[in-house]
Amino acid sequence: MTKTTATQPNKSILPAYVDIDKWADQGYHWQGNLQVANFKRLAEVISQSAESVAPLSFSISRTGGVYWFEFTVTAEVESQCQRCLQPMTLTLNKQVKLAILENEEQASQLTEDDDWILIEDVVEIVGREIRLPIASVIEDELLLEIPLSPKHEINDKDCVPVDFIEDDEEEEAEGEKENPFAILAGLKGKS
Predict the structure, then answer these.
(1) pTM above 0.85, yes or no
(2) Domain boundaries, the chain
(3) What is the C-alpha to C-alpha distance for residues 143 and 46, in angstroms, rounded to an integer?
(4) Residue 103: CA atoms inside 13 Å, Cβ hemisphere, count?
């Protein structure tokens, strides 16, 4: 038996959700460009222009009663280096194969390398539809790729650590400080 692949008619718009129960048996595939700026949580941790796009493809299938959500995305995003406070480019090259399980017992069908999540933790059930929020799952995975404290490589020529106070400025600042005991002596003389 040959498996057919259903595709979305409008490939320019990432679907908000896909009814995985409806499309998994037929196989669902989407390919297009992802607007990085459309991810609100991702936009909070990167500094990205609104025009930035990333090629994305994803598919949904079911094998042995287990839903599979697979996607590939490659995005270059701008962040701020925590060593030099200058912009830096991060390449997010993410390839995910995620099993969506109806219950934890299904985990025995997977290998120990397979990533999985329970269906109740990720989908929304509306009537008879089991809606998988595509953008939300992809955004979660991309957020996991971004370092907590992004930094250029140690010997990167573009990374010059910031010196907040030069030595000369530091000496001037110390010379300008008044001696706290001189202030007390002045107050004692007034009484």
Answers:
(1) no
(2) 6-160
(3) 10
(4) 1
